[in-house]
């Protein structure tokens, strides 16, 4: 099941079209968000929209709608399909190049192009959560904040794609980066945490990462479960020697990692703290849904 919305018109994926002068297509001059629903409620949509507008502000892209107007558009789109758990990608480009001339200048472009993709949610298998993922550390360094800030969720993912090119990376589930000073940063589409001696650690907010919404929820979950958590840089060697490692993203939630490069992490099975946080995360989702039902009943009526 899949649908695409292009500037408010809805199409089957094979019929959806944008201009070849679209700046997202030509230059990656676009921003995006990916979010999912649980039982027809779009999870942490507010946080995703906050981040979308932060990304827009950072590159001076005029979305052309208020967050509330976008929420209406997203739910109107979602209403077209009767899917309980859905994947939505909202992609907004700076519009088409002016006068159909290829021109890098961000001035005098047309209105933003707003494209939404709605798909069945494809999640990792239960066995992957039971066994844990394997990760490969790429030799490609993460973009620095001083060049292309990873905290802008832009449509330009070449840094992440290049990281997936080395042949060796295809033997692993996914790939992650070090920064230019060789500290661990984040993965191609996820944030990374390690656990050592009962303390959870991840790199600081100011690192070259996208500040994941799931990452933020992990801080809340650790707090609830009385688990110590700190933001501090760490090296690849510390990650190899961690007792537990896990990664986070909106679609993976909290995913254990049991192998990094040639190294087995901890016992080679998902660890106790990771499992505790996974349970806390599930509780957080249930609480969120219960609150959403009472506070925003119109949202459930998809
Ligand atoms: C580079 C990168 N880091 C981290 C994340 C995780 O972010 P979130 O938890 O908000 O899904 C993503 C998600 O797409 C990402 O692309």
Can you put this structure into words, describing what you see?
The protein is of the alpha+beta class and 302 residues long. 29% of the residues lie in helices and 27% in strands. It has two domains: 2-120, 2-Layer Sandwich (D-amino Acid Aminotransferase, Chain A, domain 1), CATH 3.30.470; 126-287, Alpha-Beta Barrel (D-amino Acid Aminotransferase, Chain A, domain 2), CATH 3.20.10. It has helices at 23-27, 45-58, 67-78, 126-131, 158-163, 213-224, 236-240, 272-295, 297-300, and strands at residues 2-6, 9-11, 30-38, 41-42, 86-93, 113-120, 133-141, 174-178, 184-187, 191-196, 199-202, 229-231, 244-249, 253-260, 263-264. Strands 7, 8, 9, 10, 11, 12, 13, 14 and 15 form a nine-stranded mixed beta sheet that branches. It has a six-stranded antiparallel beta sheet with strand order 2-1-6-5-3-4. α6 crosses α8. It starts with a strand and ends with a helix. The structure holds pyridoxal-5'-phosphate. Pyridoxal-5'-phosphate binds next to α6 and β13.
Descriptive tags:
302 residues, alpha+beta, D-amino Acid Aminotransferase, Chain A, domain 1, D-amino Acid Aminotransferase, Chain A, domain 2, 2 domains, 9-stranded mixed sheet, 6-stranded antiparallel sheet, 29% helix, 27% strand, globular, binds pyridoxal-5'-phosphate
Give the CA-CA distance, first to last residue: 16 Å
User: How do the helices and strands follow one another from N- to C-terminus?
Assistant: EEHEEHHEEHEHEEEEHEHEEEHH
- Share in helix: 25-40%
CATH superfamily of the largest domain: D-amino Acid Aminotransferase, subunit A, domain 2
> Quick check: average pLDDT?
95
**Count of alpha/pi helices:** 9
What is the alpha-carbon Rg in Å? 20 Å
Structural class based on helices, strands and sheet pairing: alpha+beta
Low-confidence stretches: none
How many β-strand runs? 15
Strand content: 25-35%
Corresponding CATH architecture of the largest domain = Alpha-Beta Barrel
Bound molecules: pyridoxal-5'-phosphate
Largest sheet: 9 strands, mixed
What fold name stands as the CATH topology of the largest domain? D-amino Acid Aminotransferase, Chain A, domain 2
Highest-level CATH class of the largest domain: Alpha Beta
Write down the domain tally.
2
What would you call the shape? Answer: globular
């Amino acid at each position: 099941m899949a649908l695409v919305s292009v500037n408010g018109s809805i199409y089957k994926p094979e019929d959806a079209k944008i201009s070849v002068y679209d700046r997202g297509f030509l230059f990656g001059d676009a921003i995006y968000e990916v979010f999912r629903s649980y039982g027809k409620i779009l999870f942490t949509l507010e946080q995703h929209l906050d981040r979308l507008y932060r990304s827009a502000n950072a590159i001076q892209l005029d979305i052309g709608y208020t967050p509330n107007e976008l929420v209406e558009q997203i739910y109107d789109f979602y209403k077209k399909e009767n899917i309980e758990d859905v994947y939505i990608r909202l992609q907004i480009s700076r519009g088409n190049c002016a006068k159909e001339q290829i021109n890098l200048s961000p001035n005098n472009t047309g209105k933003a192009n707003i494209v939404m993709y709605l798909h069945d949610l494809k999640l990792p298998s239960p066995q992957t959560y039971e066994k844990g993922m394997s990760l490969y550390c790429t030799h490609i360094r993460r973009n620095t904040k001083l060049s292309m800030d990873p905290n802008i969720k832009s449509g330009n993912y070449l840094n992440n794609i290049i990281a997936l090119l080395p042949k060796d990376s295809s033997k692993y589930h996914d790939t992650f980066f070090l920064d230019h000073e060789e500290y661990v940063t984040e993965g191609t589409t996820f944030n990374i945490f390690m656990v050592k001696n009962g303390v959870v650690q991840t790199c600081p907010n100011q690192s070259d990462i996208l500040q994941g919404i799931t990452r933020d929820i992990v801080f809340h979950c650790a707090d609830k479960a009385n688990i110590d958590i700190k933001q501090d840089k760490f090296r690849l060697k510390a990650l190899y020697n961690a007792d537990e490692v896990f990664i986070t993203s909106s679609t993976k939630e909290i995913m254990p990692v049991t192998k990094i490069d040639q190294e087995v992490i901890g016992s080679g099975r998902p660890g106790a703290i990771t499992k505790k946080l996974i349970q806390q995360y599930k509780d957080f989702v249930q609480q969120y849904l219960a609150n959403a039902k009472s506070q925003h009943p119109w949202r459930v009526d998809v």
